[in-house]
């Protein structure tokens, strides 16, 4: 079964760390990621660029143009929350218990969300 592990940035955690500490944590995460990837447990994923690089498109009724107003296209995240997704991993494991066992070993501080992936034929 596949699960998505969302890596949540809680309001600038990384940006507030000294550069040496950032490198140390990225090295630990890289080792962790490599171990689980080689074991076939992480089958995909990426770190995302910082939230200010995001572009948000608001769609209404399946159309990018809103009949009673303009298209809403915003540079940067348009979320009320201070949390943003900083990256994700795709886990290929037997069940949720195995996914959680892996996620609990995340080598840095942070919040991780685990969700089952809906797999459909032909997608």
Task: Give me the secondary-structure category.
Answer: alpha+beta
Order of helices and strands: EHEEEEHE
Strand order of the largest sheet: 2-5-1-6
Overall mean confidence score, pLDDT: 83
Radius of gyration: 17 Å
How many strands?
6
**Strand coverage percent:** 25-35%
Q: What is the percent of helical residues?
A: 10-25%
Distinct helical segment count:
2
Spans with pLDDT under 50 lasting ≥5 residues?
A: 65-70
Number of domains: 1
CATH architecture: 2-Layer Sandwich
Largest sheet: 4 strands, antiparallel
CATH fold type: Alpha-Beta Plaits
Euclidean distance between termini CA atoms: 15 Å
| Broad shape | flat
CATH class: Alpha Beta
Q: Superfamily at the CATH H level?
A: Dimeric alpha+beta barrel
């Amino acid at each position: 079964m596949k699960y998505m592990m969302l890596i949540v940035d809680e309001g600038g955690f990384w940006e507030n760390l000294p550069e040496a500490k950032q490198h140390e944590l990225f090295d630990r995460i890289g080792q962790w990621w490599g171990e689980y990837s080689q074991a076939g447990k992480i089958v995909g994923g990426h770190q995302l660029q910082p939230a200010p690089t995001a572009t948000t498109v608001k769609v209404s009724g399946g159309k990018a143009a809103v009949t009673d107003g303009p298209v809403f296209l915003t540079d940067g995240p348009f979320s009320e929350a201070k949390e943003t997704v900083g990256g994700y991993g795709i886990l290929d494991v037997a069940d949720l218990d195995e996914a959680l066992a892996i996620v609990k070993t995340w080598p840095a501080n942070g919040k991780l969300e685990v969700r089952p992936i809906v797999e459909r034929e032909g997608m």
